[in-house]
Amino acid sequence: MVVVRIFAGMNSRKLEGRKLRVAVVGGGPAGGSAAETLAKGGIETFLFERKLDNAKPCGGAIPLCMVGEFDLPQDIIDRKVTKMKMISPSNVAVDVGRTLNENEYIGMVRREVLDSYMRDRAASFGAQVINGLYLRMEAPKDEDSPYVLHYTRYDGKSKVGTPSKLEVDAIVGADGANSRVAKDIDAGDYDYAIAFQERIKIPDEKMAYYENLAEMYVGADVSPDFYGWVFPKCDHVAVGTGTVIDKPAIKKYQTATRNRAKDKIEGGKIIRVEAHPIPEHPRPRRVKDRVALVGDAAGYVTKCSGEGIYFAAKSGRMCAEAIVEGSAFGQRMINEADLRTYLRKWDNKYWPTYKVLDILQKLFYRSNPAREAFVEMCADEYVQKMTFDSYLYKTVVPGNPLDDLKLAVNTIGSLVRAYALRNESLKATA
Amino acid sequence: MATLFQSAASPLLHRSSSSCCSWLSASGGGHLKLKGEDAVRRHGRLVVKAEDERNGSAAGEVVAKPRKASPLQRGGTLSGEEAEGKDPSPAALLANKKPLMSLGGGMFEDARWKNGTWDIQQFTNSGRVDWDAVIDAEIARRKWLEENPEASSNSDPVVFDTSTVPWWAWVKRFHLPEAEILNGRAAMIGYFAAYLIDSATGVGLVDQTNSFFGKLLLFIAVTGVLLIRKNEDANNLKTLASEWTFYDKQWQATWKNEEQHPVSEKEIKL
């Protein structure tokens, strides 16, 4: 619940006879949750989405806490993954998930189902959903003038849209990794990974193996700095991989991933091929005047796991809450300081999570010995418990210090052994 | 007719504007992805008028601007050497040299590899396990699999864990030889340093060890050798240090903007 302390400064003008108008550009999880929170807060909200039935390429995994925090109904979850298999470069396979209780799971969703549910819910609270493509914005002349948002409106009947414009007081850029809003505010570039995925329909008896199990393949053949995956979807599996530093070779990595999973997906038919960029870190500038970026547009994807849906929805909500609070439920004009409140809250709350995942990626995706050590560590029950607790509930849980020490010692031991084996093999060939 | 320049992206990547490029309303509005667009944008507004369309396309045809790199070619803000370490596995940059894929090559086979793990019995002779041979076998297996990746199989899973080899076997095989070398180097340098100091200052070895300055130098020397064992280590440490803080800098970039252009402060309540 938003607790409002009205700290709106003396210098922000009270809006006469109208509510604050905010445009949310992009109707994915970030846009949908931002629009819902804004509409609930009494702000006149416009949610722009260019393709209302867009089936986005995406891993589609949501943590357990998202279901609770965003009141998601159970029927939008296609599958509840309760087991994971981590497979090292030398095919050492480790089963992860023994520590989960029967209420804990990773939800697999179809993006078109989730996105439209969140948009419809935002509309039910009063947001106006506009089927349109954002083109550009005109900056305001002063701090009380509105932004003029130019867009192409589609009326659903013809393919050609009508150019239109809309005056709004603030804009939330939730339009994804290739964000136009970000370009318009000179937000800067980020490093990004290319994720490449093939949807494969496999025979039923092979599909039974993936009933509630997802696989993660690590290895230099599969990706130089990420992992390959097999995620079960509603009635097929998604086999994919990603990379940041070797994008032109992504097809080679995809072939290698398919080969590693060959036994388990044999006889399958590729029904769809898709690719999308994944931001690696936030853009240099996430807020400018009365425009803020959320979700993938801001670059809120974790390292190591590449998780983005939950953070997109959460950042949309936090940004909207900051706007609601700063405008005293839509009565006052906001300025950049209100949007920076959202940034400060976000950075304070989630920086530890992002940093820990960054350290894990740098440590364990570095080279094949590191990946071998990583898979070895995953066999440990304490590691599994800590990993799942922090993933499912998004809190860094402080464990028992003695166990932490044991874990540190074991990690170092695994890494040392793996690197020793590798160095010895290099010596043999040198 | 306006020329539409599409980026060379594979058709799999959907850019939000590319799907609208094929629609142009009759009255000359709509958005055109022109190459000259960036130049026009520098003035802050994209003026979509009929004249500009013609200018833009004329400019595009006359001036051969370099094609914008496709998303598959763009590496973000860093590439090549600079990307090394920013995201892991610099080995990948060298990986192109190694043949990583071997389709239909032989599977890994070894008489001592049974049921997804090394059969320790086969390494035992006269009651003692030859752990060195186990380590050698595992090295060979990993090397083979790195160059000839195999499909992971459920019917024949790999369950070998390196911790089955006891810690003292690791120490004896890997740590002791290197420790011997480092201690040898330290002893040689120490002997000559002590000799030179003695001849220069007349302070004997016992007095050198007793002095605080001597102890301090010894401490620095020992830690230095632990951290920098080879010449490359000095560079590695520097890279590690910058790598450690790189992600932090990327996150804090947005706050640097604020320092340069401070906004009028409302009371910010968290």
UniProtKB/TrEMBL annotation, chain A:
Protein name listed in UniProt: Uncharacterized protein
UniProtKB/TrEMBL annotation, chain B:
Protein name: Uncharacterized protein
Organism listed in the record: Diphasiastrum complanatum
